[in-house]
Design a protein that fits this description.
globular; glycolysis; 11 helices; alpha/beta; 251 residues; TIM Barrel; TrioseP_Isoase_bac/euk; eight-stranded parallel β-barrel; binds phosphoenolpyruvate; gluconeogenesis
Length: 251
């Protein structure tokens, strides 16, 4: 099974109307002839309209970094899945470690968002990963397995047909301390094998991204590993040259 590589930029809480325009115009130009891999940028909510108007008709898709699990109602400050669809989003990041740690998101709330995203026709990019302490205690498989099971046990493995998984060890996110390709591959293989216990076809087809200090210098080696299908990229997605180089490494 050949899986098409995917690179997703996570802008986090960065950007402005002026800087987004420059960034996106350079990304569009840099990726115009890229046909062998997919790319997505996930922008803050207020810029989705701008991102839509600049990226529509290009080979770069866009999405959001979170969403509410219900579609409308008295939920001050929340943004619904259907609102993201209104702005042309195709993807949404679910369960990022910053949401889990800074905003108290749990396996349960992440699972509810995952399902609501799919109900709205969005592709959830579901994040999993262990902390440094958990890795040191040899708990990586337990933590990542638990996070993965929070989806598979509730909804069945088939839901992964319309989803992307991302392994993002917390110690590597925003740290300049990326996992080595071997470390990342080990966990990606663990994830794929765990899915295969339930459904071998789904396991073979699902794209599993690696995230955590991906740069142009390490992308090609990471993406060469058999179970790494691309990257979820934070800081380097804010520099057009770096993001383009990472997408090219996936191409
Ligand atoms: C992320 O935001 O998901 C991420 C991986 O960040 P960085 O690439 O900056 O480590």
């Amino acid at each position: 099974m050949t899986r098409r590589k995917l690179v997703v930029g996570n802008w986090k809480m960065h950007g402005s109307i002026a800087s987004n325009k420059i960034l996106l115009e350079s990304i569009i130009a840099g990726l115009r002839d890229l046909h062998g891999a997919d790319s997505v940028v996930c922008a803050p909510y207020p810029y989705l309209c701008q991102v839509q108007s600049l990226l529509a008709g290009t080979n770069v898709a866009w999405g959001a970094q979170n969403m509410c699990s219900t579609n409308d109602g008295a939920m001050t400050g929340a943004v619904s899945p259907t609102m993201l669809v209104d702005y042309g989003c195709t993807h949404v990041i679910i369960g990022h470690s910053e949401r889990r740690n800074l905003f108290h998101e749990t396996d349960d709330t992440a699972a509810a968002r995952f399902s609501a995203a799919q109900d709205a026709g969005l592709i959830p990019i579901f994040c999993m990963g262990e902390s440094a302490e958990e890795r040191e205690s040899d708990w990586t498989d337990y933590i990542v397995g638990r996070q993965l099971d929070s989806i598979i046990r509730r909804f069945g493995p088939h839901v992964l047909r319309n989803a992307v998984l991302a392994y993002e060890p917390l110690w590597a996110v925003g740290s300049d301390n990326p996992a080595t390709p071997q470390q990342a591959q080990e966990v990606h293989e663990f994830i794929r094998k765990r899915i295969a216990r339930c459904d071998a076809q789904v396991a073979a087809a699902v794209r599993i991204l690696y995230g955590g200090s991906v740069t142009p210098a390490n992308a090609a080696q990471l993406f060469a590993m058999p179970d790494i299908d691309g990257g979820l990229v934070g800081r380097a997605s804010l520099q057009a040259d770096d993001f383009v180089a990472i997408c090219r490494a996936a191409n």
